[in-house]
Design goal:
This protein is α/β, with parallel strands linked by helices. It has two domains: about 1-170, Rossmann fold; about 200-449, pyruvate-formate lyase- activating enzyme (Alpha-Beta Horseshoe), CATH 3.80.30. Helices cover about 40% and strands about 15% of the residues. The protein is built from 15 helices and 13 strands. It has helices at about 20-30, 40-50, 50-60, 60-90, 95-100, 120-135, 160-170, 230-240, 255-270, 285-290, 305-310, 320-330, 350-360, 380-385, 415-430, and strands spanning about 1-5, 35-40, 110-115, 135-140, 155, 200-205, 245-250, 270-275, 295-300, 335-340, 365-370, 390-395, 405-410. Strand 10 (about 335-340), helix 13 (about 350-360) and strand 11 form a beta-alpha-beta unit. The chain is globular and about 60 Å long. Bound molecules: iron/sulfur cluster. Iron/sulfur cluster (SF4) binds near residues 252 and 300.
Length: about 450
């Protein structure tokens, strides 16, 4: 059997698609299948935004680099919105026939579609509809495989379901080990020139899920047991792909994992970035991490108010966070901060506590990425809304995406009030930033800035 894995537009084409590469690796390790992959998102962008690809390759200074991304970000948002509207109106999005023809349906028995972001679901609906018309079997997977797309393919939720599906179709299983050091991931199918980046940045995952799994707003982590992947496998993956820049997509990393990864990166001269909680157990290791190539950390700081952090079950101490940021900054590591406003019951005073915290620690902050809390299926705040003063939860049907959730709160500022407050203080936040704001949307690019 011959299977094609596709990754539909639209998401930022600045890094390689980990979901597709690791799925191919899984299928080839455990099943007797012929598998190819096709990053249609990169193919779309290479055609539609050719001028930016050219400009990135020719850019000489980091200011140029940031400007190109700023212009690309503005234009691409408009293009995505226009094309999503086209799909909603039953029309073909841009480059549809050309992109669809890359699938070469006559060569495959089945197509598997990986959906990581909601923004991929519109173009994917067009593609899946067309495949459905041709009578081609499609399977779907990924965190965004919800809503309308499910009408056109069979959802396989995890590795167990994938193996069951194919063995029932008569495909033989193989004895293999996904994480054997002799079986590294390979990104060779993803041509470097298809990605909007001056250098190739590899997305790498070092563990199965977040080991902490307690933040009450969070739906990111996979609900699977925590497992750390073999260091020898990670090392060979970096070697096999001649990695120079790596963005760790782990939701969280333990201190031991950080040190072990830094050790292999030091020897291979790899620069990397990761996401962490600012906990005090990390104090004292920054120098080793920096020497091991750590360039940038995105910290889940979320709030400057200890009451809100406790309600979020963030497990961090706001008194200790400045020390963690200072040590990291003094060592030479870039600090990017995630901040979340309007967590249920947050007051205006607590909102301002966060702004004051940011200003007080601005010397050690390179970029602030803000968001407004949203209630999502699977989050602890959704499962026990009464604990957070959340009332009147409603779900509104949408055409392509799964329903959107609205709610009211018994006390604290609403999302609307938080947006108004944020507008008022945005210039104060902007003054803190030393890295251009555009890199909030393609954070891995800070490795090259
Ligand atoms: S926010 Fe981060 S640390 Fe908290 S549960 Fe989610 S993934 Fe884990």
């Amino acid at each position: 059997m011959k299977l094609l894995l596709i990754y539909p537009p639209f998401c930022t084409p600045t890094t390689l698609p980990y979901s597709l590469v690791s799925l191919k690796h899984f299928l080839k390790t455990y099943l007797d299948l012929e598998v190819n992959l096709l990053d249609l998102n990169a193919e779309f962008h290479k055609r539609r935004f050719a001028k930016y690809y050219q400009a990135i390759k020719e850019s000489k200074t980091k200011e140029d680099y940031a400007e190109i991304f700023t212009n690309f970000d503005k234009e691409s948002r408009e293009v995505y919105a226009k094309n999503n509207r086209a799909v909603l109106q039953g029309k073909d999005p841009e480059y549809f026939q050309e992109i669809f023809s890359l699938i070469k349906t006559e060569d495959y028995d089945m197509i598997a579609c990986s959906l990581v972001y909601n923004s991929q679901c519109f173009y994917a609906t067009g593609i899946l509809k067309e495949l459905h018309k041709k009578g081609i079997t499609c399977i779907l997977g990924g965190p965004a495989a919800k809503g309308k797309v499910l009408e056109y393919g069979k959802l396989l939720k995890d590795e167990h379901e994938i193996l069951k599906f194919f063995t029932e179709k008569g495909i033989k299983t193989k004895q293999g080990d996904f994480y054997a050091s002799s079986n590294p991931l390979d990104f060779f199918d993803c041509k470097e020139e298809n990605y909007l980046s001056k250098e190739r940045i590899l997305p790498i995952k070092t563990s199965s899920t977040c080991f902490y799994k307690q933040c009450t707003f969070c739906t990111h982590f996979a609900k699977v047991p925590y497992k750390e992947y073999e260091i020898a496998w990670l090392e060979n993956t970096l070697k096999q792909n001649s990695a120079k820049y790596v963005f760790l997509i782990d939701d969280m990393l333990s201190k031991e994992r950080l040190l072990a990864f830094a050790e292999i990166c030091k020897a291979l001269k790899v620069q990397w970035a990761c996401q962490l909680r600012p906990t005090s157990d990390l104090l004292g290791i920054s120098k080793k991490l920096y020497a091991g190539g750590l360039h940038s950390v995105s910290w889940g700081v979320e709030s400057g108010s200890q009451r809100i952090l406790d309600l979020m079950k963030k497990g961090t101490d706001i008194e200790k966070v400045p020390q963690v940021l200072k040590e990291s900054h003094d060592t030479g590591i870039q600090n990017i901060l995630y901040i979340m406003f309007a967590f249920p019951t947050e007051t205006k005073e607590e909102f301002m506590e966060t702004i004051n915290f940011l200003e007080k620690n601005q010397e050690n902050i390179d970029l602030v990425c803000t968001s407004i809390f949203g209630l999502q299926h699977g989050a602890k705040a959704y499962e026990s809304p009464e604990e957070y003063g959340i009332i009147e939860i409603k779900e509104k049907q949408r055409t392509v995406l799964e329903g959107s959730i609205t709610y009211k709160i018994k006390q604290g500022i609403t999302n609307k009030e938080a947006r108004i407050l944020q507008k008022k203080v945005q210039n104060r936040i902007d003054k803190i930033n030393k890295i251009p704001k555009v890199f909030k949307c393609s954070r891995e690019q800070v490795l090259l800035y």
